[in-house]
Design brief:
Blueprint: E1 2-3, E2 9-10, E3 12-16, H1 45-57, E4 62-66, H2 76-84, E5 91-96, H3 105-111, E6 115-119, H4 125-132, H5 137-149, E7 153-160, H6 169-176, E8 182-187, H7 205-215, E9 219-221, E10 231-235, E11 241-245, E12 258-261, E13 266-268, E14 277-278, H8 280-283, H9 288-300, H10 307-311, H11 322-325
Parallel strand pairs: 3-4, 3-12, 4-5, 5-6, 6-7, 7-8, 8-11
Antiparallel strand pairs: 1-2, 9-10, 10-11, 12-13, 13-14
């Protein structure tokens, strides 16, 4: 079992398999992209399999596969097959933009991997294409509906971007009210590859809630797990739910149970700080399992209590792109 220096149990790993993405969302990176990692700087798929096995042995029982866009990796299913066989791993989930997942839907279902987060920041096609700078809306929407009808546990992640997509908050809830999905609205974060800087936001989670309540006054707050990053609600007459994630306000830090490992091996104990260590060369060295365990224990032994505390330690942390730190 992994326990950090604030007596928080760490049982959830966000594991990035690539920093590459086939979209160019304007809140994530500049239009020209970022300097993506060289191939030999990334974990191989077999190293990701071994790392996952070691982490589950340390008490990780939930792994979320992230990117970049995970399905950019042609060998991703090798890892997912391995994860589905690991005893003690109770929850395997994937965060995807749903552009490339289509051919893999049936195998994911057969492996029992049914928790899928789909990044969808607009229900209007033109708005989607302006944000993503790509013409992929029809593919994304088709795959989203396929996942829902195939019985996957789907959550839609919608980042509220001032002057870009907030007019789509009510419409996406209106479209999705017919489906058993959770639409989760996230505050914008400054991890955008240096394409924009800001210290405050207008559309925080309270404003998003007020906006939704102005259209749907009959809202019930739901009980959520202590470690949940979202505050969840149900609208009367809707099959699904919606959630608010205070990713900028950071109200959930006190119960953080997450650890991030990037595609290049960086161990990130808090989004608002720099990596505590790197595991890539450790994975390629001797006595791999004991060395990995030692590095992980050292990393979680020096965590900040909150993201605000962590942020104060580092200048320039927001010059990172979300695609390089695993979302």
């Amino acid at each position: 079992m992994l326990i950090d220096n604030h007596n928080r149990k760490i049982n959830y790993l966000r594991l990035a398999v690539t920093d590459r993405c086939n979209l160019r969302c304007n809140y994530c990176m500049p239009s020209e992209g970022i300097n993506f990692a060289e191939k030999d700087s990334l974990f191989t798929i077999w190293e990701l399999c071994k790392l996952s096995e070691i982490m589950v042995g340390q008490g990780i029982d939930k792994i979320r596969i992230t990117g970049g866009e995970p399905f950019v990796r042609k060998d991703l299913m090798v890892l997912l097959r391995k994860l589905s066989s690991l005893e003690g791993l109770n929850d395997i989930s994937i965060t995807t933009n749903a552009t490339l997942i289509g051919p893999y839907i049936q195998e994911l279902k057969s492996l029992g991997i049914k928790n899928i987060n789909v990044s969808l920041d607009a229900i209007d096609k033109n708005t989607f294409e302006k944000i993503t700078r790509r013409n992929q809306y029809d593919t994304v929407y088709t795959n989203l509906i396929r996942l829902i009808t195939e019985g996957f546990n789907v959550r839609i992640n919608f980042i509220a971007l001032e002057n870009q997509n907030t007019q789509d908050i009510i419409p996406i809830l209106e479209v999705m009210k017919h489906y058993p999905v959770s639409v989760r609205f996230l505050e914008e974060m400054p991890f955008n590859g240096g394409s924009k800087s800001f210290n405050t936001i207008n559309w925080d989670y309270k404003k998003i809630l007020d906006h939704i309540q102005s259209e749907y006054p009959e809202i019930t707050k739901l009980e959520s797990p202590k470690t949940s990053t979202s505050i969840n609600y149900r609208i009367k007459g809707h099959k699904g739910t919606f959630g608010l994630i205070p990713s900028f306000s950071r109200t959930f830090c006190g119960s953080c149970n997450r650890l991030r490992i990037s595609a290049t091996g960086d161990v990130i104990t808090c989004l608002y700080g720099k990596p505590r260590t790197n595991l890539r060369e450790v994975m390629r060295g001797k006595d791999v399992e004991s060395q990995i365990k030692e590095h992980i224990l050292k990393a979680i032994g020096s965590r900040s209590k909150t993201g605000f505390e962590e942020q104060e330690k580092y200048d320039g942390i927001f010059e990172n792109s979300m695609t390089s730190i695993g979302g």
